[in-house]
């Protein structure tokens, strides 16, 4: 049924800005000697590397894809790491990829240019006894077939590639996967297919549910980044999936969207997962996968920056190498003693804590604590107000939001999953698009924020004043279309509500309903006197995920009413760490 609902549009060849030095179709094998540099701005190879270009691999349905393989010179068999994505395998030297490095403030000299976008660098890994496989996946560049976007089909295709790689004479039979964003998502789908020679995965921030994370977050058709992904990727000779038309034709959860969720229960391979609180595209999906995969050997590290600087940081690469050395080379290096969780606590004033060890996430010393909204005083209190009160705004007015404050009198740390339980009413409308934000204020009431990337330029400020949220962290946010409020009881927990998105429940005049909004995981410290502000609005409080994409504007009219106290005790639930004595 899911294949019946798929839609496609013609693809097109790679545009000039996406073309790299190695894009041209030139099958063959050569040795890149130590000191080789693909272009002046990139890192030189520290060792001799065998480069097998445009190797044909046939998938189970007869489709042929082409891969590039970089491996250490010599006769020793080595494990291989796969970087699966629709970004051309020769794009590492393209203007587009160099532009992304410039956007976040990274020097192109930290990589060799032989890597795919968001992928492991052959210069680093070949020098340490690993091969790297960069495929052009189904339907991309010179590979045959029609491409799909984050789908179980990709898992089956990558299964076939992994098993082919394991049988190559130079391969030890151990295969891993690594990479950020799209390359992380593909690992969920591949691991769920359980290829016998997949020994370990390293998903470094990636969505895990296309419907909930990419196209219909909170039940709202926010397709800005999906449009950028569809139109700015999947270049090839044939067709590519038209997810924009699919979300228009299938706005509720169907088999199409179910097959764009990996089967988490079948992911049993060892996994080193990397996440952040601040990536408004990937955060929810990464933590969801961490919670739901069945792997008994899984590790989580939550960093305090953005995925690209974090991925290419040399210390983090060395940390990842310990993981892969353990599982792909069978080295007894003590990796198993690594804390299962290493989390960060953001300070937003220059005092972040990183690498805090725990056995689980949230840590065991966290208590989910209700802070009740008081519509009279506009405060948050730990006891429910006895008297009922309303906080309301006209969606066409300024302000079209209401907020509530609490001031912490002692050092307070929040680590885990916040959520909002609200009683709401729409006057003059039958639906509401609600946006919520947990914001940190200093002792004087000034909102605190922090860049997640090294680029703090004037242009970076311009981009992130409203939008480009992956580049600057402003707090934990959530959203919900009220007609999509029905909870999926099987997936929901007390801390993390999950909505079914399989029905539309419009509001009647005068109807007051309870809703639950899941907010992004949080790790945030408050010093004595600092404040937390909780905002509810009809407008998109943070703006776009990325620079240059269309912003979703809430579909709202009339007046929004938040009921508090009495029979309608709305609250914000926060994960409060028990103070150490």
Provide tags for this entry.
581 residues, alpha+beta, 11-stranded mixed sheet, 7-stranded antiparallel sheet, 13 helices
What does this 3D model show about the protein?
There is one protein chain. The protein has 581 residues and is an alpha+beta fold. It has 13 helices and 28 strands. Strands 2-3-4-6-5-7-8-10-11-12-13 form an 11-stranded mixed beta sheet, with helices on both faces. Strands 14, 15, 16, 19, 24, 27 and 28 form a 7-stranded antiparallel beta sheet that branches. α4 crosses α5. The protein is globular. The model has no long low-confidence stretch (mean pLDDT 97).
Strand order, largest beta sheet: 2-3-4-6-5-7-8-10-11-12-13
Helix/strand/pairing class, anyone? alpha+beta
User: Helix amount, in percent?
Assistant: 10-25%
The tally of strands reads 28
Uncertain spans: none
Strand content: 25-35%
Tell me the distance between the termini: 57 Å
Could you provide a short overview of the structure?
Helix 4 crosses helix 5. It contains 13 helices and 28 strands.
Write the layout of secondary structure elements.
Blueprint: H1 2-5, E1 8-10, E2 28-32, E3 49-58, E4 64-72, E5 78-82, H2 95-104, H3 122-126, E6 131-136, H4 152-166, E7 171-180, H5 182-192, E8 198-204, H6 210-215, H7 224-232, E9 239-241, H8 243-249, H9 255-258, E10 271-276, H10 283-292, E11 298-303, H11 307-311, H12 314-328, E12 341-345, E13 353-358, E14 366-374, E15 379-381, E16 389-394, E17 401-407, E18 412-416, E19 419-427, E20 433-441, E21 450-451, H13 458-464, E22 472-473, E23 476-481, E24 513-518, E25 522-526, E26 531-537, E27 559-564, E28 571-577
Parallel strand pairs: 5-6, 5-7, 7-8, 8-10, 10-11, 11-12
Antiparallel strand pairs: 1-9, 2-3, 3-4, 4-6, 12-13, 14-15, 14-28, 16-27, 17-26, 18-25, 19-24, 19-27, 19-28, 20-23, 20-26, 21-22
Helix pairs in contact: 4-5
């Amino acid at each position: 049924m899911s294949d019946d609902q798929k839609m496609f549009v013609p693809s097109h060849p790679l545009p000039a800005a996406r073309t790299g030095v190695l894009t041209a179709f030139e099958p063959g094998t050569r040795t890149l000697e130590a000191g080789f540099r693909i272009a002046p701005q990139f890192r030189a190879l520290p060792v001799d590397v065998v480069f097998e270009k445009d190797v044909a691999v046939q998938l189970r349905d007869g489709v042929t894809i082409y891969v590039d393989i970089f491996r250490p010179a010599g006769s020793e068999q080595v494990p291989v790491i796969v970087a699966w994505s629709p970004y051309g395998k020769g794009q590492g030297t393209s203007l587009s990829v160099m532009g992304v490095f410039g956007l976040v403030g990274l020097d192109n000299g930290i990589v060799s240019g032989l890597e795919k976008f968001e992928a492991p660098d052959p210069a680093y890994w070949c020098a340490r006894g690993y091969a790297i496989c960069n495929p052009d996946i189904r339907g991309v560049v010179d590979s045959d077939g029609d491409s799909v976007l984050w789908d179980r089909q990709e898992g089956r295709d990558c299964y076939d590639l992994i098993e082919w790689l394991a049988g190559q004479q130079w391969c030890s039979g151990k295969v891993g996967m690594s990479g950020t964003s799209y390359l992380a998502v593909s690992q969920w789908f591949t691991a769920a297919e359980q290829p016998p020679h997949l020994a370990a995965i390293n998903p470094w921030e990636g969505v895990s549910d296309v419907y909930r994370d990419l196209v219909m977050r909170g039940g709202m058709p926010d397709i800005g980044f999906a449009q950028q992904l569809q139109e700015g990727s999947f270049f090839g000779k044939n067709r590519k999936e038209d997810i924009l038309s699919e979300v228009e034709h299938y706005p509720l959860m169907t088999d199409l969207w179910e097959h764009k969720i990996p089967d988490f229960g079948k992911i049993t391979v060892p996994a080193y997962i990397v996440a952040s609180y601040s990536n408004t595209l990937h955060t929810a999906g990464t933590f969801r996968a961490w919670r739901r995969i069945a792997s008994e050997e899984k590790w989580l590290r939550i960093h305090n920056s953005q995925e690209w600087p974090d991925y290419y940081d040399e210390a983090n690469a060395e940390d990842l190498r310990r993981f892969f050395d353990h599982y792909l080379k069978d080295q007894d290096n003590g990796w198993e003693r690594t804390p299962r969780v290493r989390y960060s606590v953001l300070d937003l004033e220059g005092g972040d804590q990183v690498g805090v060890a725990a056995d689980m996430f949230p840590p065991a010393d966290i208590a989910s604590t209700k802070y009740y909204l008081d519509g009279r005083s506009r405060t948050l209190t730990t006891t429910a107000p006895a008297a009922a009160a309303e906080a309301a705004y006209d969606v066409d007015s300024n302000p079209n939001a209401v907020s509530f404050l609490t001031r912490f009198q002692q050092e307070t740390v929040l680590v885990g999953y916040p959520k909002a339980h609200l009683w709401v009413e729409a006057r003059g409308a039958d639906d509401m698009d609600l946006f919520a934000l947990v914001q940190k204020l200093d002792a004087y009431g000034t909102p605190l924020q922090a860049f997640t990337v090294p680029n703090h330029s004037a242009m970076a400020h311009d981009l992130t004043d409203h939008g480009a949220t992956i580049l600057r962290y402003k707090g934990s946010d959530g959203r919900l279309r009220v007609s999509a409020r029905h909870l999926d009881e099987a997936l929901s927990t007390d801390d993390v509500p999950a909505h079914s998105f399989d029905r539309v429940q419009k509001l009647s005049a005068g109807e007051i309903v309870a809703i639950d909004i899941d907010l992004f995981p949080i790790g945030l410290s408050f010093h004595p006197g600092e404040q937390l502000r909780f905002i509810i609005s009809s407008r998109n409080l943070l703006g776009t995920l990325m620079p240059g994409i269309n912003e979703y504007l809430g579909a709202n009219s009339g007046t929004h009413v938040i009921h508090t106290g009495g029979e309608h005790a709305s609250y914000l639930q926060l994960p409060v760490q028990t103070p150490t004595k």
